[in-house]
From TrEMBL, chain B:
Composition bias type Basic residues, residue spans: 851-888, 923-932
InterPro entries (UniProt xref): DUF1604, G_patch_dom
This protein's encoding gene: GPATCH1
GO MF annotation: an example: RNA binding
Protein name, as recorded: G patch domain-containing protein 1 isoform X2
Compositional bias segments (type: Acidic residues): 1-12, 769-780
Organism: Callorhinus ursinus
Basic and acidic residues bias (residue ranges): 582-593, 674-695
Biased composition (Polar residues): 659-668, 789-804
Amino acid sequence: MAFPEPKPRGPELPQKRVKTLDCGQGAVRAVRFNVDGNYCLTCGSDKTLKLWNPLRGTLLRTYSGHGYEVLDAAGSFDNSSLCSGGGDKAVVLWDVASGQVVRKFRGHAGKVNTVQFNEEATVILSGSIDSSIRCWDCRSRRPEPVQTLDEARDGISSVKVSDHEVLAGSVDGRVRRYDLRMGQLFSDYVGSPITCTCFSQDGQCTLVSSLDSTLRLLDKDTGELLGEYSGHKNQEYKLDCCLSERDTHVVSCSEDGKVYFWDLVEGALALALPVGPGVVQSLAYHPTEPCLLTALGGSVQCWREEAFEAEGGTS
Amino acid sequence: MAALDSDSDEDLVSYGTGLEPLEEGERPKKPIPLQDQTVRDEKGRYKRFHGAFSGGFSAGYFNTVGSKEGWTPSSFVSSRQNRADKSVLGPEDFMDEEDLSEFGIAPKAIVTTDDFASKTKDRIREKARQLAAATAPIPGATLLDDLITPAKLSIGFELLRKMGWKEGQGIGPRVKRKPRRQKPDPGVKIYGCALPPGGSEGSEEEDDDYVPENVTFAPKDVTPVDFTPKDNVHGLAYKGLDPHQALFGTSGEHFNLFGGGPQGTSSLLGEVGVNKGRKLGISGQAFGVGALEEEDDDIYATETLSKYDTILKDEEPGDGLYGWTAPRQYKSQKESEKDLRYIGKILDGFSLASKPLSSKKTYPPPELPRDYRPVHYFRPVVVATSENSRLLQVLSESAGKSVPDPGTLSRHQLNASKRGELLGETPVQGSATSVLEFLSQKDKERIKEMKQATDLKAAQLKARSLAQNASSSRAQPSSSDVGHCSWRVALSGGTAPTRASNFKPFAKDPEKQKRYEEFLVNMKRGQKDALEHCLDPSMTEWERGRERDEFARAALLYVSSHSTLSSRFTHAKEEDDSDQVEVPRDQENDVNDKQSAVKMKMFGKLTRDTFEWHPDKLLCKRFNVPDPYPDSTLVGLPRVKRDKYSVFNFLTLPETASLPPTQASSEKVPQHQGPDKPRKPSRWDTSKQEKKEDSISEFLSLARSKVGPPKQESSPLVIKEEEHVTESLSNKNISKGEDSQTEGEGSRPSMDLFKAIFASSSDEKSSSSEDEQGDSEDDQAGPGEAGFKSSQETDSVETSSVARTSEPAPQEPAPSFPIQKLQIDEREPFGPRLPPVFCPNLRQTLEAPHKEKHKKNKEKHKTKKEHRRRKEKKRKHRKHKHKGKQKNKKSEKSSSSENADSSDSQSDDEGPADLSPQELLRRLKSLPLRRQ
């Protein structure tokens, strides 16, 4: 009994604002979905980290303990813990339920730009402007990092982790991919300072945004350029980029207050979503649904596709 | 019958023997149902089939462990206290008591061991077995016995063995004759009925062809008369198969089955008997081929008729077959068999060489000179002049190394001008050959003076200062360091060991230094009377007292200076005093090529570097990934040791040498430092940044000491210079800053000259990459910073315009504002900025406090000596300078622009906003002087 395959729907882009969270924590430095996309984390410049239900707009918990603004956060695969890094040079491991600090990893010599859990949340990888990536062991009580990846010549702006790779973008204009399984380091020169890197969902490509207002899609294995996306403005700030939930579109923040969507294959601009005046600092794309979170100033906007209807009338 | 039962009642499971067949008419007994068929153990408990250790019945308590309550540990002992004496559990601890019983797997009952059992059982037999091990009825039996039971040899056996006797030899004096083939020789093992002993032996004796005179042989073993009673049913003297032959024997030995060849028909007759007996399964081949046997063709060689002669013909003489038509090959092979015995089988088509091969002549390896060292090491090179000859001496004493003869300087130790001199060239006029040429006459004199002064005084100074400054230990480090570092300054090419551990306060007096070191060692060991031990006994009391004081103080100084210094500085990544440094084996190379590749969008091979990278083992474990390099202890990029004194290492290496000397030397040369104050090193002052701290004077001294470790890429020098300049700026006034900048430049040649001198071609590459990096950093940082700055300033200037247009922005909580302001000001100039907080309303309302705050911050900046900040400011200044003209335009623009909210105006403020950073970079590169 084979049912006919459901017709592949055309990709819908989130362009309907369904919710605006006024975070009340100063500038929202980063907004991140949790692993299943039901919750989101906002990193505030008032040293707090907040956990939200973005669709309902309810604040679930506030995590305070950072000594400076929080610059990035990530949730573990089992939603049991969070990690965050900030201007206080510390990487903090939080317990989600209790809101307590579990561990504080100190060792970075500069503010921590980006943090990531590995797949099993046993290691936190943090990239800092001290041009090092440090791998902190969550399992042991060791205060030192397991390993320090200090190959970068300048600050690390972005770190992403797959099951056996660490992808790091650095201000020195290189994207470095540490392959643990092969024991090799691949360094791709892009030239302009990297602001954000990410893997595609299929793990075959890396998306790299740099300060020359260009996003590049590179083949992971060969480093070849698969696509180039421009039209937005990113020349001075560390802005996020990502791929849509089905790798159909490339999404990037812009300094002109919009979020730009490009078709991944064609490279054509699909949508320039006006968010508001100012700089769209951060964005996060839902892992499975066309749902986008943007951070602008002190607020976070939640966007859905046009056909979306919020359940329970909470919008 | 049981089978019949089970056939009829298939659902029954029965154990034990079957029932008797039923009598006619008798009522069949009711079979015991399955649930009633129980087995009980000795305690009356039910046993269940289990299939485990003890005969398939359940062990323990119903297939579980222990008792009904389950397993209980014998006694609980806290492992916290008695961690050490944790008893090791043996297998018995996990066994059930049934297993230990008589029929268990490990019976505990006392049983006579086989050792004793075999002897006590049949002492006579045992004795006979040992005596006639070879002639046992079944030869393998004893062997098997030996395999199973520990072969316990009698003391007589062992004594004989120790005297050189070997099994199979006879006992007695050695005799001069060919060793007779021993009776138990496996080669002549006879299957079937044994041959009468006389015949074969006689023939063997006749075989003797050549016996060297001086060779003696063991006497032949005399088989004792066997008194063992015949207790088997074999024929007389029948011997079974020897497993030796069945399993490991060669084919040749099997052929002996058919007797010794020419001697007598009896063997052949016997053989026939064997062939008959084979059917009964007694013969060797009946056992089949063992797994270890190499060739089985011969074992299964069946006697086909084709192997036999079917027609009568002449027999070979001496054949001895006399008409018997047994296969010929057996006999002919017998000849080579002798030799093959120890070689093994010879391959087909090969024959044994008659002459041994002449061995190749080997030559011994060349003899090394006695003073040869397999490792080359570089001596610190001191150019001996009249000025520093004394210094040379001091250095040589302190370093314990011999100073090379100045005349034998190698080519590499000469600089260009000296090489030119040697070649007889006239020195190039006009262009400067040394950095010193760029110095004003006054400065040169000063340096010269100082050099001389330090030369003369350095050594005395430190000793004296140690002796004199009894209480002020504070002053000592500086003074001694001064002396210490003066070497560095004064020596061209000298690399004085500067690590704290190499601190040598008494280098002038090697004896004393030796005593001091001894003292230190003793003290480290914790000896209280360390001092007394190492003082020279021949000294006077007064001298001793003085030296004791000195030593104690020096030790204190050593410790304190070491600890204070080490608390401030990170360790140099490579040892300063070793001749080699570790550098990453692979370096990311050649940014220029990549840049052009990026421009051409030729991503891929051109822009990719691949390195071997070793993840930490624990990291692999945590990632659930097998360690790609399981054998290596390396972590990170593989590093190689390279010659330290190669300039190329330092061109790419960002790490620096130890800081203390540089700092001290900058103290030493304060005249050149200008308005520079000794800066407090911050946490940021790691490797790269440390270099940047150095002032121009440091740079000069570096330039003079050609091989000094602090010599690094030239790119930091650019920054250095800038920094130096900016430090001399009074912080706020731009024009004034520019003035002083030009002043600073007036007295020195431009950086490009320095670069032209010091940057080699490859240096340029790396430095340019660094420069570009810096530039791009500047570019991305600069505009952001400047833009932000200017936006702030435009804010203050044009509050109204901003306020007018920025109404609809979301309100920001008031208290967070100053925080954010502060944060923004304290941003480090790395990488892309974070976007500013967008709160125009607050800007308007909090204008006054904002300004105050800003001022405050600036004051704070002034007081704080963190050089990052300065750099930041410097950048700001620079950018302001750059944007000086644009600012006016900007203000107009932003006031007139429609989207005049702050961040937009900010982005608009970027004069060259349309230009890509690459473009900017290119422009900046083409106009390097603008940067100054």
